[in-house]
Amino acid sequence: MMTASLTMAIFLLLLTPGPTNTLLAVGGASAGFRRSLPLILAENLGYMVTIVPLVAFAGPFLDGHPVAASALKLCSAVWVTLLALKLWVTPLGEAGETGLVTFRQVFVTTMLNPKALIFGIVLLPNGEFLQTLPRLVVFAGIVAVVAAFWLSAGASILRLASRRFPSLFCRVAAAFLMVFALSLAGSSFGLI
């Protein structure tokens, strides 16, 4: 099973602001907590789609092929840039019933999130896949708790700001996503 220190490391890494957490907060602000709950499943699925193959096969491959790891970071940067551009041009008032953030956006963003590489290559591996399965179950529970935190933060704190300054809210969120995209691109080229 997982040690307390490993659980805390996973919790803190998941809690750290990033593209997925930004989307969850924007989702909570634009659609409310209850309507944004499916985004928790999207985040969990996104992580699992990346982590399970890493645990099973790709960890050693990526260690031996740094160009492939850089290409993954660059793909992540492109995706996050596209999300930032969408947020920049879409006023919060046009979000509709489902909000600004979709299941697909959270899924793909999480799947491409560099945190998934850290989880899949560094924190979760422990022998064969069946030995890692209990860790993955605990990991999914931690993801759900942290995602609920970001949704509720968006639904409560950010929703107030988004009502008063809707276009400013979207542009600030877009700017945060661009900072993440630039850091990913810089990292993929070895600049950061």
UniProtKB/TrEMBL annotation:
It comes from the Bacteria. Pfam families: LysE. The chain crosses the membrane at residues 40-59, 71-89, 101-124, 136-160, 172-191. GO terms for molecular function: amino acid transmembrane transporter activity. Its main location: membrane. One of its GO terms (biological process) is cysteine export across plasma membrane. This is LysE family transporter. It is a multi-pass membrane protein. InterPro entries: LeuE-type (IPR001123). It is found in: Cell membrane. Keywords: Cell membrane, Membrane, Transmembrane, Transmembrane helix. GO terms for cellular component: plasma membrane.
